[in-house]
Amino acid sequence: MTGLRYVYAVCRPLGAPLQADLSGVAGDPPRLLNHHGLVAVVSHVPERDFAEGPLRRRLEDLDWLTETARAHQQVIDALTAVSTPLPLRLATVFRDDSGVRVMMEEREDDFRRTLDRLAGRVEWGVKVYVEPEVQEESEQTVTKPASGRDYLMQRRRAARAHEDTWQRAERFAGRLHTTLSARADAARLHPPQNAALSKATGQNVLNAAYLVPRAESEEFVEIVDRTKGEESGMRVELTGPWAAYSFVEAAAESRATETGAGDPGEVQGV
């Protein structure tokens, strides 16, 4: 089959086959490209969408980007079930198999070090939110002020209540992060999510990722579950297990070179 080569991830040889009906980006099933004991997981994709010029335009098409990201993540999830993949950027594309092999040759040492570090581990995401009703309660005025002085006093009380809520949230999030970090091999704090972009309700006060051995994941999940409802007005969300996106060193991330179809998209895997 002709076309460019879309690369999802690099991994060690798989311990079990990928699911037979797995579909990748552009509907093409992923295949394995072996090189020096490493495996690149690739699909064929059409030049009309993934050559340098068309790809730059396509990345501005939200519907196309969402569909591509979903197919990309579907392959990564399937790999995570049978291996420890090193996920590459969304829309990492090369001209042909030779271009993929050149990339693997150039990054071989980085890939091996990173895969050794991630072996047998998965990523779990934990977020803490202040529920919307708690924010509203800390800001609302109970009675109509009778004077300017009453108004100022009510505003001061509301400000103190707001500050108390955030201090309580920060203490809770800090304790949770410390507890979970002690049960993980590594942890990463990400910037709080923008509510307008994430569509999540409430204000995000903790957005963290934890690298956890597979064998200890059940215990990790139980610890998170026990914190839910522990602090009134705080919502704890757990996601995963994921491929270890947050723990892939920048040096190990591949970019298409002149042997490829052009620079891959800057959008990170989701």
Q: Can you describe this structure?
A:
The chain is α+β, with helices and mostly antiparallel strands. It has eight helices and nine strands. The protein has helices at residues 47-50, 52-58, 62-82, 97-118, 132-139, 148-182, 195-198, 217-227, and strands at 4-11, 31-35, 38-45, 86-87, 93-94, 121-130, 186-189, 203-213, 234-242. The strands form two sheets. Strands 1, 2, 3, 4 and 5 form a five-stranded antiparallel beta sheet that branches. Strands 7-8-6-9 form a four-stranded antiparallel beta sheet. A hairpin with a 2-residue loop joins strand 2 (31-35) and strand 3. The longest helix has 35 residues, at 148-182. The model is unreliable at 250-270 (pLDDT under 50).
Detail the topology: elements first, then pairings.
Layout: E1 4-11, E2 31-35, E3 38-45, H1 47-50, H2 52-58, H3 62-82, E4 86-87, E5 93-94, H4 97-118, E6 121-130, H5 132-139, H6 148-182, E7 186-189, H7 195-198, E8 203-213, H8 217-227, E9 234-242
Antiparallel strand pairs: 1-3, 1-4, 1-5, 2-3, 6-8, 6-9, 7-8
